[in-house]
Prior knowledge:
Elements: E1 8-11, E2 15-20, E3 32-37, H1 39-49, E4 54-61, H2 64-74, E5 79-86, E6 92-95, E7 104-106
Amino acid sequence: MSNGKRGVLVVGDATIDLYPTDATSIAPGSSFEWHVGGTATNVARWAASLGSETGLVTNIGTDVMGEMAAQHLTDGPVDTTHVTRVDATSPLTLFVATEDDEGWTAG
């Protein structure tokens, strides 16, 4: 974002979102798929998908999930120059299906 063009700089969270692969209740042995999420991260990706030069300011943990999230973000359309690695675990958000399929539990 240093070429003088106007763009979008988003500041906020990055999380690892976990979804059960079979979209049912979680039980021992359940499998999950993961996505990099968080409100700020999602907004940055959406802005970039609309053609805006977009940067993200956030922290990512140094655990294995943080490593995968950092690589995923680096491979995407958002400038990650200001994504900082911090000595912490990455925040996880776990989707838990409810009757209306809108239930979320953050952990």
